Description:
This protein is mainly alpha-helical.
Amino acid sequence: MAATAIQAVYVRGHDERIEPKPHIVFRIDIQAHVRSWQMWRRYSEFADLHTELTKSVGAPPPCPLPPKHAFAMLRSPKNAALLEERRAGLETYLRAIVSAKDSRWLDTIAFRDFLGIPIGKHAGMSGTGGGDLASVGKDVGGLLQFTSSTWLDEHMDLQARVRDIRADINKRDAFSERGDVGGAHTTNVQAKKKLAGVLTRVGVLVSGLDALVVQSGMSEGELQRRTDMVARLQDDCEKLAKMLTVASRQQSSSSSPSSAARNMTAAPDRAALFSSGRGGQPAVSSKPIARVFGVPQPPKETEETRPLDDHGLLQLQQAKMDQQDAQLSQLTAILQRQRQLGTAINSELAQHVELLDGLHNDMEQVGGKLTAAKKQLNRLG
């Protein structure tokens, strides 16, 4: 979004206008990455903006709007002290919105329109990742025409789309590891659609750069810089395409290797474990110890984490944590079932012990009766 390209906002002066009636307007200086411009706004327009932002977001901006001082301004509309106080308050109000961690007010259409920011891609992207290409320039003779700033805005948006596709690939791999084939397939299809839209827009970006060079007379240094930017973007798209077509199969093969592969992998370890050295002592492996218990190991880059940015790494970590939580839940359920089985076996053994004790008592009684009967038979004999 173009709003994220704002670097600074200042209210550096005021002027008196006659039409339609005498009033004071304040000069707003906006600085972006590649250009800067000015806007003139009345205090009443600030008040309308504050009302619209509060209504759209559901909460007032982080800094309150300076008070009106209606009667003082009516008595002395050119009071320098009051105008300076209002100017400083309005500058603080705008800068608080621009620098706030919560970008809900910054991303509203009302605020963008108030500062004169080109409103193009505020509505977001389509489901296929194509976006609204017509919002970045004018379509003249079938060719999209960029300005210097809208070209950079489009490039920034495409970079965001590339990061989004990486996040989808990580999500797909997480689904594959969990065994959710349907979720992995759906996420993979969505990522492919987004990549197709990004590739289309990259082609338009290249054509727009050629047209921009002819129109604006761009310097060779700036042209080379932007050409390199497009080349890096195309390289990222090529890597994503390979990841979408190959990585899922690699993930499935690595997560469920065949028994032959497992045996081949375990053979060296088994040989090192059972081999003996001189004197019947186990042979000392030449492989260095890779880990000592209790000593933290430095993080290492892997094929899975190398193409990710900070946001992708965070999502990958969250997916791994969710997977571990699911496995822990399964282990907990297994242990609970084992406990129930152990309790049932214990109860059944207790019943068997009681039956054996009863049988033992009965056998003792029968033995006593047999002994008494034998004694009587001996007397009769």
